[in-house]
Structure formats: structure tokens, C-alpha cells
């Protein structure tokens, strides 16, 4: 392994990950205890023992199922279940792609400080940036709500998780899925098929808390859409969204291999109108 230090960084990382797959040494944290915790590997990093990581996964998983709108719990679940394999697989997918490698090298961040919301609102209708900011405005959210990664030991893999997290709203904008339980679960199903991150798959358990009509719609419409599009589309982690803002959103969907699902907000609005109409007829 001593000669690896003379290789280019991307090649060196790839070889190190390959070594991890064969011996498990590099991806497994050094054994330590709560009384002998190692120093953090990056700002904000919290090293966890295996018992602590398992407890975090179970606790955050149960609580996020009870309250799927607790994004901090979903974030903790994502980090606790992403290692030792899945986040490395996603990082490898970035290393294998020219754009993914540029993202890893540049390490851009998505927030209201790095993206001008006013500039995006001034873009023509039908562009990626305009679709993104229109979705943010319609749903009443901002790009500043994503938690900072803390529990992934490898600094580069921590960035990969942070990047995935901050791109989540772009996935919403491109698919048109709203921030309601149905929309979130449908998007998580798409992300699971595309990224294989366990948290995205576990989040689908929230379907058990839906109403009967919502569950039927998920199983018949949105789960088939999510699996089909998540498997066939390109790895969405490799989209350099900051460079796509002025591009036609339909062209990007076509390039990625993503078809828009039926408009969930419109469907829900029609159902509410139908229920009100029936209620008036029965009074």
C-alpha cells in the first residue's frame, strides 16, 4: 500500500476502496470505546462505536416512522445505515463518472448562499433553475434545511452524503413530487432504486401510516413509477445541478431517463373536490 501515495488522488481512492472490499480494513473504524473516542476526521464529525451506530439506526428509524416529517431523524438514520458499504458504493459511482469526479474535486454546496433565488426566479419558464425555485416557492421550503453530516467517518464519503442530501430538492423539482407524505415516500422509492442507500428503502415503511386510498395509489401508480425510473435512469448523484440551471428541464429529464409521474397535487385536489361534492349531495 505504500506505493499508492504516489498515484493520482482519484486512482488512489479507488484502490483503497477495492482494498476495503477485500479485507474490510479501511472501511471499518478502529475499535474504540465511549471513554476513548478518537478525534474527529472533519469539522462536526462525531465518531461512533458499533453499538452507538446500531442504537442510532434503530432509534432514529422507529421515531422517523412515527413522525416522517422529522428530517433530523431521517438524516441520522441515513448516516447510521450508509456504512460500511452503501456510501462507498455511491462514492465509487461518482469516481467512475467524469462529472461525478469533478463534483468530488470541487465539492460544491447547495444553499441560498451559493444559489441566488432571485436569479433563478428570473430564468425562463421551463428551465431547470426555474423549475427548482418554483417548486421551493410552491412547497414553502428553502435549500437551507438540510442537516450537516456528522456520523460518517470518511470525510469524502461524508461529502457524498451531504451532496445527496442537498440535491434532494432538485429530485423533487425534476419529478414534480410535492412535500407531502405520499410524495416523499414515492421519491424515496425512486432514490432507493437509484442509489441503494438503505435509509431511502426503510423510509418506504411510512406507507403503512398512509390512508387506505393513499396506499392504494402508492402501490398501483407511484411505486411502479419509482422502481422503473430509478433503475433505468442515470445515477442522479452525478448531476452537476449548478451547471444545469439554464437548461431546459424536459431535455434534462430525457437525458437522465426520468419520466414525470402523474401530478400528485392535482390528483389529491380532484379527490378533495369530489369528496366535497358528495358531502353536499348527502346534506
TrEMBL record:
Q: Catalytic activity, per the record?
A: a 4-hydroxy-3-methoxy-5-(all-trans-polyprenyl)benzoate + H(+) = a 2-methoxy-6-(all-trans-polyprenyl)phenol + CO2
Gene Ontology molecular function, alphabetical: 4-hydroxy-3-methoxy-5-polyprenylbenzoate decarboxylase activity; zinc ion binding
Compartment(s) of residence: Mitochondrion inner membrane
- Pathway(s) per entry: Cofactor biosynthesis; ubiquinone biosynthesis
Q: Where is this region: Disordered?
A: 263-283
Membrane topology, as annotated: Peripheral membrane protein
Tell me its cofactors: Zn(2+)
Alphabetical keyword list: Lyase, Membrane, Metal-binding, Mitochondrion, Mitochondrion inner membrane, Ubiquinone biosynthesis, Zinc
UniProt KW Mitochondrion keyword: yes
What is an example of a Pfam family matching this protein?
Coq4
Q: Which GO terms describe its cellular component?
A: extrinsic component of mitochondrial inner membrane
Report the InterPro entries cross-referenced here.
Coq4 (IPR007715), Coq4_euk (IPR027540)
Keyword Cell membrane assigned to the entry: answer is no
- Listed Basic and acidic residues bias regions: 263-276
Query: Which positions in this protein are listed as binding Zn(2+)?
Result: 168-169, 172, 184
Described by its record, this protein's role is as follows: Lyase that catalyzes the C1-decarboxylation of 4-hydroxy-3-methoxy-5-(all-trans-polyprenyl)benzoic acid into 2-methoxy-6-(all-trans-polyprenyl)phenol during ubiquinone biosynthesis.
Q: Tell me how this protein assembles.
A: Component of a multi-subunit COQ enzyme complex, composed of at least COQ3, COQ4, COQ5, COQ6, COQ7 and COQ9.
**Protein family according to the UniProt entry:** Belongs to the COQ4 family.
Name of this protein:
4-hydroxy-3-methoxy-5-polyprenylbenzoate decarboxylase
Q: Name the species this protein comes from.
A: Cordyceps militaris (strain CM01) (Caterpillar fungus)
Question: What lineage, starting at the top, does this entry show?
Answer: Eukaryota, Fungi, Dikarya, Ascomycota, Pezizomycotina
Its gene?
A: COQ4
